[in-house]
Design a protein that fits this description.
Elements lengths: L1 H22 L16 E11 L4 E7 L2 H7 L7 E9 L2 E10 L11 E6 L8 E7 L5 H5 L6 E7 L5 H4 E6 L6
């Protein structure tokens, strides 16, 4: 009888400790330079040029509705591209709207850029983005006409925070 009582008290104590542990606040994760899965997406573009200041001029695929929107802007205008995409892959630009620095970005697949040309040719639009410092060496070796893979944050806080990495495009072997 005494053993049963001790066993039930021990079980109750273990259950109380488990509940208290589950409700305890969790420590904040350490900040990381690389985003976790679901925090970024990939898109591909054809390199037009890379200047000495790290500005990449690139062509990317644009859908018909967005192609019509590009004509409303001038070269040099700041615009917000919204990509068609799913999870971590963006396919083509589906919307182009005016972008004001400091504007809150709500869409997961949005990217602030500088419009390089208002002309859309062969379902591609041309724009400029700033290459992250860590990717400059990799991009300087890419020649015009070659392709790059760009890793971009979902809902960036602005231009400086938008791109995570740029690298030469490597075709999957699978």
């Amino acid at each position: 009888m005494l053993r049963r009582r001790i066993a039930s008290i021990a079980c109750a104590w273990c259950a109380a400790v488990a509940v208290a542990g589950a409700q305890a606040p969790k420590p904040a994760p350490a900040p990381s330079a690389q985003p976790r899965s679901g925090e970024s997406y990939l898109w591909h573009g054809e390199v037009v040029s890379v200047d000495a200041k790290g500005m990449l001029t690139v062509k990317a695929r644009v859908l018909n509705d967005a192609a019509a929107e590009v004509g409303r802007f001038n070269a040099g205008d700041r615009v917000l591209l919204t990509w068609s995409g799913l999870d971590i892959h963006a396919g083509a630009v589906r919307r182009v709207t005016r972008y004001e620095p400091g504007q809150q970005i709500l869409d997961f697949f949005a990217l602030p850029v500088e419009l390089a040309s208002r002309d859309v040719q062969n379902e591609q639009m041309t724009f400029r983005v700033r290459v992250p410092e860590a990717s400059l060496a990799a991009v300087k070796g890419v020649k015009p006409g070659q392709w790059v893979t760009v890793t971009t944050r979902h809902r960036p806080k602005g231009d400086a925070d938008a791109l995570i990495a740029v690298s030469g495009y490597v075709k999957s072997q699978t």
